Amino acid sequence: GWGAGYAEIIKENKLFETYYQELKLVPEGEWEQFMSAMREPLPATIRITGYHAKEILHCLKNTYFKEIEELEVDGQKIEAPEPLSWYPDELAWHTNLNRKILRKSPLLKKFHQFLVNETESGHISRQEAVSMIPPLLLKIEPHHKILDMCAAPGSKTAQLIEMLHSDMDIPFPEGFVIANDVDNKRCYLLVHQSKRLNSPCIMVVNHDASSMPRLQTESNGKKDILFYDRILCDVPCSGDGTMRKNIDVWRKWTTNNSLNLHGLQLRIAIRGVEQLAEGGRMVYSTCSLNPIEDEAVIASLLEKSEGALELVDASNDLPGLKWMPGVTSWKLMTRNGQWFSDWSEVPQGLHTQIRPTMFPPTDPEKLKEMKLERCMRILPHHQNTGGFFVAVLVKKAPMPWNKRQPKLRNKDTKSAAPVDTTPAESAEDVMKAAAEDKPNDLEEPQESAVKQDGVCGPPPSKKMKLFGFKEDPFVFLSEDDPVFVPIQKFYSLSPNFPKLNVLTRTHEGKKRRLYVVSKELRNVMLNNCDRIKVINTGVKVWSRNDDGEQFGCPFRLAQEGIYTLFPYINARIVSVSVNDIKVLLTEEKPHIEKLGAEAQAQAKKLDMGSVVLRYNPDPQDSLAPQCSMELCGWRGKTCIFAFVPKNERFHYLAMLGVEMYKEEKKEEESTTKIIEEEGVDQSEIKLEETEDIRPPETDTCMDPVKAESESIEAEEPESIKEIN
What we know:
Elements: H1 14-23, H2 31-39, E1 44-48, H3 53-69, E2 72-73, E3 76-77, E4 82-83, E5 92-95, H4 99-104, H5 106-120, E6 124-126, H6 133-138, E7 145-148, H7 155-164, E8 176-180, H8 184-195, E9 202-205, E10 216-219, E11 222-225, E12 228-234, H9 248-252, H10 256-274, E13 276-286, H11 295-305, E14 309-311, E15 324-325, E16 332-333, E17 339-340, H12 364-370, E18 376-378, H13 380-383, E19 388-395, H14 429-442, E20 474-476, H15 484-491, E21 502-504, E22 513-516, H16 519-528, E23 534-537, E24 539-544, E25 555-557, H17 562-565, E26 573-575, H18 578-586, H19 597-604, E27 609-615, E28 629-635, E29 640-642, H20 646-655, H21 664-678, H22 682-688, E30 701-702, H23 704-707, H24 718-723
Helix pairs in contact: 5-20, 10-11, 10-14
């Protein structure tokens, strides 16, 4: 009846047990441990990220973990969080603390609040342990062009972005991440995850991964096909490795799940290796233990590649990780319990459900050459994780059906570029599917759909159906755009600031927000606007503040993009100390006189308006943070305060050893008072905390030359208008 609650899901599935016991994937004598682990809740795992990773790790170990080690709740000693032995530099930790225990101790409540705040500000990510493995095996470097084929919800994508920014002194790495997902709604979840990292090198797109468009770039006036150095192919799967956290899988699991997904997984993997550069690395992964979704896909891919792909031995890449080698023989079972060891045994009536690629190769020599034992299967009971499968592939030569360069879509190069050859194995269904999408992928767009002079329109409807929200245009500014004149003068921007990389999301009326992307992403966007549906890209660097116009510049600095922008700013910088930061972030109305002598003198020389509050670490002071900090601020008539979102304030204060958890209401009231008295447009502080993920007007990106003359209506969405 009503109020009785939900019936508890029984963690039993006889079909699951029968199937995996027969396959013998679990070592002999470990079955009971395996099933026992599958029924236990999954430990919470966190990963420390971003510019201040070392400082956060120091704070966790010395402020929280030490105290938790000595803590007792209800007479029981609390198990302190432990680092994942195989994750580099102790930047990933797991804990068995649950919500009941967290509520019983003030210290644990404080620890939980710290994790929540750091997660909101993007400095800590909650991510399942095994999910961290694929990005590590990709071995990413800052110059790599990366494609994440099935990216949502975005925890692995965030990891890829972090690795791209491994050198924090480079604001614009040469590489980039294109994160794709077929589900339009999940793309916005992906944007939310990636936005926390404030990178100018990430672009979120919305496509079916199995027919991912082939993109092109321009270099020295010549068009080239874009091939990726690294591809993450984390395909949709039955998810039986996630039973510890997704308990609904216990009830829904059948062998049909894998049979239905195998074809899609293979098509996505084929599309991935087609777009991989020679010498590039692709990681194929699933959160399923089933060989039909794992080794069967890899074996089929290797067989079709005819030696163009190599399955790499990654056993030494993550020392400390326990895993089982891939299997070389397996069987299929229907949901009715019927077993098949070979394609020849499958009755005609099941040929649409069961395909030849689902079985192991029958040629012993071919099977030996594949080295399927190099695949890695992680079992839950070995290191208290979820179940997972991962394989690392390196491309040594073009795929047999891509032996010649694809035809470029540029008419000028049409005659010089040869067309793809026909797939060698077109008889098989999976290969047919892969081959059928190639002609559309490479043919020239219809003339009516392509705008001239570099202004790109939506792709033809027959080639790519658009679902979900239509996006605002991405309008790149020209170097001589009038908007740069006051900005250049006010902030004394360096001459090498890449103005061409600045974009806005409207080409009519006032530009309210300015974003910046890397040069390489700009190249991709302007050369492929008719081919890709871009959901989001760029990091916000300036926001319009009309009150600031009277002080010399109508644009204030945005905290999201300050680390990207700061290397180019040469004016309006105030050097602050640790004590200054504490004053700026904790006091309701910090008067300039309360700052240290150096900061005070610098602030008094500046007119009203946006400023950068810069902290330089002192190597002699071991107790102070040893990393630089840049905060956006506002110099008022008599006061100066940090223009930083609430969760970022808590982050910086935690790094300084200050614990401060104010009530939201009080903080909002005090901030409003300061803003009114210091001459800042109140709508700006609200916009600062408004997520810039919105359903806009049109799906296009613009070149600066044509953008000014276009008349597409793309004003602010209603939600932002209401705030203003």
